[in-house]
Amino acid sequence: MRLATPTRSLLLVLIIAFLVVLFVNLNTESHHPRLRSIPLPYVYKFLDSSNEPLREPLDSPTTHDTETPVPLTHSEAHVHEFTLLELAPGVITETTIPVGAHVHGFTVFDHLYVRNGTFYVVTSDVSSFPPRRNLIGRPVEMDKDFEPTDEDLQFIDPLTASQVLGDHAVRISGFSVIIYDHSQFMNHFYHWWGEIILGAWRVYSKLAGTENEPACLPFPTRFLIPMIEASKWRDHSGVSGPLMRGAFPEASIEKSTHWQDLIKLNSTFVFDRSMIIHRGIAGRHPFGSRWFKMIGGTMNLTVADDFWEPVRQSLVQNSLGYIPKIDDSKGVVLPPLNEERKTPVVTYISRQGGGRRLIHEDHLGLVKVLRELESDGICEVNVAMMERMSMKEQIAAAARSTIIVGVHGNGLTHQLWMQPSLRSAVFEIWYPPSYVWDYEMLARNMGHKHYGVWNDTFITFPKGTYYEGVKIVEGFHSNSIPVYMAVKVHI
Asked: Is the four-CA dihedral 242, 248, 252, 256 of positive or negative sign?
């Protein structure tokens, strides 16, 4: 059956009814959870002078339902400004290393340029910079030739820079930490946190409190790992990644795909501030051959004793919700107000479930004497097997401790979260008479006293004195490491 053609009056009625329904819907808040409008609380605008973002509230929770929001114009809705820097002679900004923040393999740059995967130091005085071979290396395995080439980094004169870089560069703001290295040692808890991150922060801390720099330095904006795919930088225990998110929650971690994206754009970028890190180059420092540690050279930089505190406190607070305080007179790390503690906490990190471990009877004996100390009211004892604990529990175990005891191994890296004090200490047990620097160097950076334990012998070195060399004997990685109960007396 053919439908009748609607009359003009009927069409007019339908149009009016549609408009009434539309008007009511637009001016009545829906109570359906999937249809309720959600206001955007902030619009980000940039100051013309500094390009720093300002958050401006559009609506307050108390007025949103009663006041009519002012719509953004087209120009206001597109407030992001993309900063292009001119590279013409006489205009281009030269690259600098601020306040000498450099040791082999760890270098801070202001205005470092990159194009097609190659870094460019723009300078009218190349002699004011360390040799290229002390700044960067090829990102290859340690047993390969990592001598840098022009594909890695070049020095160019500001008068001719535009011939290489073009007439403009895209600004990458903030502080970018660039780990220009192979994954060979990267995917290991100690090597990542105890060398790469600790070393980077020590060198970066050279800037703290200097002219034009705040005493509390801004955290990195991003970590860039150009040669690493996906999760290959992460340790097999899954510890490094969560700790990075806890310590640097606002920083992105960009891998090889990000780097390739920059290359494909065939554009020049300039980092406001950056740091290039390379393990092989770090080993070229004279202290590298003395201690055989990536961060050996960083120990030659004078920084504040508490330089690590911003990172430690950030991780502890973000993970636990508070930062434990210390009663230095008793060596007691004070818990939150709802707990009581009158004695220091000794945490024994047990490796009895792993390969390198104590003789079983010696492990039991060590636990026994520690419990005796606890019974005598001298300390509180915590026996921790980190691999069986949640990430939060691992951080809490270290943060509430005054003394950490354990066989040489990854777990001792957690001393990075232990509160430094006059009584904080690390007892590291080796197969005698081995001696390696991994965790002593961490203790020196943290301000903890370090004791090497050779069965019934204790060895320690005051500030400014050191064990000569490195010694690894047969049995170092064994499952029968001895320890005599004399550890009780020292604790």
From this structure: negative
Span 90-143, pLDDT tens digits: 999 999 999 999 999 999 999 999 999 999 999 999 999 999 999 999 999 988
- Structure tokens given for 453: 């334990």
Q: Is the peptide bond before 148 cis (omega within 30 degrees of 0)?
A: no
C-beta of residue 248 within 8 angstroms of C-beta of residue 314 = yes
How far is residue 366's CA from residue 362's CA, in Å, rounded to a whole number?
6
Tokens of 62: 């108390």
Cβ-based neighbours of 168, under 8 Å, separated by 6 or more: 84, 85, 86, 87, 268
CA 35 to chain CA centroid, Å, is: 41
Looking from the CA of 141 toward its CB, the CA atoms found within 13 Å total: 3
Tokens 């995967």 -> residue: 117
CA 362, CA 484: separation in Å to the nearest integer?
7
pLDDT digits (tens, 9 = 90+) for 240-273: 999 999 999 999 999 999 999 999 999 999 999 9
How open is the CA angle 285-286-292, to the nearest 5 degrees?
80
Cβ proximity of 405 and 350 under 8 Å: no
pTM of the model: 0.82
In Å, what is the CA distance from 98 to each residue of 70, 212, 273?
A: 46, 11, 9
- Per the model's pLDDT, the better-predicted residue between 63 and 302 turns out to be 302
* Distance (Å, whole) CA 129 – CA 100: 10
What is the per-residue pLDDT for 68?
45
How many helices and strands, by DSSP H and E, does the chain display?
A: 14, 19
Query: In terms of residues, how long is the chain?
Result: 491
Share the mean pLDDT of the chain. Answer: 84
Show the tokens assigned to 92. 């281009």
Q: Which residues contact 183 (CB under 8 A, 6 or more apart)?
A: 227, 228, 232, 233
